[in-house]
Amino acid sequence: MSTVRLATPTDFAAMHRIRMAVKENVLSRPEAITEHDYVQAITELGRGWVAEEEGEMAGFAIAYRNGHVWAMFVDPQKEGRGHARALHAAMVEWLREVGVTHARLSTDPGTRAAAFYRQQGWQPGEISSNGELAFELPLPRCSE
Q: Are 56 and 62 in contact (CB under 8 A)?
């Protein structure tokens, strides 16, 4: 069972370990992402969430206030246990709360991540110059 909480700067090492362990959407230049990037993403530019299983980090997600999803990854050893769905739900709820009407992200085409986002209602778009497939998720405002 997945428990989701807000990420803190002290989560950097575990988040980065998970990011480096993935089998798809592998970073071409791992040294390009630093602790500062993670901390800035969750403290200044947006918010992050951590999924935990039995007190251990199972995955994380980070989204910016402008609607861009910077990262969502699950530890390959903990896949298939609902962590991605729980992280996605928390992230989308927050994006709605901050007034985002269209969330955006990109991922490698033909991956399990791309299939997951389609299942969650994300609409595929163009392939970017770096070969990633762009996705958009409309977030209509709730009626009051």
A: no
Burial zone of 108 (CB within 10 Å; 0-12 exposed, 13-18 middle, 19+ buried): middle
Q: Which domains does the chain have, with CATH numbers?
A: 3-100 (3.40.630.30)
Count CB neighbours of 138 within 10 A. 10
User: What count of Cα atoms within 13 Å lies in the side-chain half-sphere of residue 70?
Assistant: 20
User: Among 2-16, 21-35, 73-87, which stretch is predicted with the lowest mean pLDDT?
Assistant: 21-35
What is the model's pLDDT at position 118? 96
Tell me which residue has tokens 């770096």.
130
| Contact call for residues 104 and 135 (beta carbons, < 8 A) | yes
Strands (E), the chain: 3-6, 46-53, 56-64, 69-74, 102-107, 123-127, 133-138
State mean pLDDT over 53-77. 95
Q: What would the pLDDT profile of 97-132 be if each residue is shown by its tens digit? A: 999 999 999 999 999 999 999 999 999 999 988 889
pTM: predicted TM-score of the whole model, two decimal places? 0.91
